[in-house]
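RESIDUES AND SHAPES:
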Amino acid sequence: MIESTKGIVLSNMRYRDSSLIAHVYTEKFGRRDYIIKGAFSKKNNKASFYLPLNILDLQVYEKGTSTLMMVKEARISKMLMSLRTNPQKSMILTFLSELLEKTLRADEIGNPELYQFLEDSLISLDELKHNWNSFILQFMFRLSHHLGIDITSASLLLSETQSLGYMDSGLIKYIDQLIELPYKHDVVIPLSKRREIMDQTVKFYTLQLPNFGELNSLKILREMGESLRKNRER
């Protein structure tokens, strides 16, 4: 049966010479894995449609199973230009792609509210002209609500991830601001504290979600941030 749905590409991989397998979180059906035959053909190159975190309008052959399915037609629903041209935003995109690939891999039912959250968040990131340093942490706190592991406060996060009885009051203030404030509001946090909050948040995800594992892109994100910081100081 042919169905229409919106979808956000989580990741992709080349398949044989000219085809592509795309992992997509769809509005109607949750996560689906699609094979796009001829995606790299010279005559009709479709591979660029399936870049990670592209927002697509899709017509798909839906079987209601977890097997590879096919896309009948796809087009870009919303162009997110700055996410492809701004190096810092592109790195954020790489991190989000890995995070969502890990957290949404078992969702084959569909959650329109989660889908809308993802789409709205990507559009918000694209529209930010500055102040996107806090975006990843704000995104992870909001995503936790949709995953059923809701990080509702700094006290909850730190009580689950710290073995010490003492909680840093400064850290609590920053975390609660990140939870409460919208994306457009960049919370000014010292780098060491920002990294500590990220480590605690990743640890929380690891404790709450089976087989979450490590986030390889976090190391790259930090190396890029360090490089940009050194360039500014020259």
In short: The helical segments are 81-85, 87-103, 112-127, 135-146, 154-161, 169-180, 191-208, 216-233.
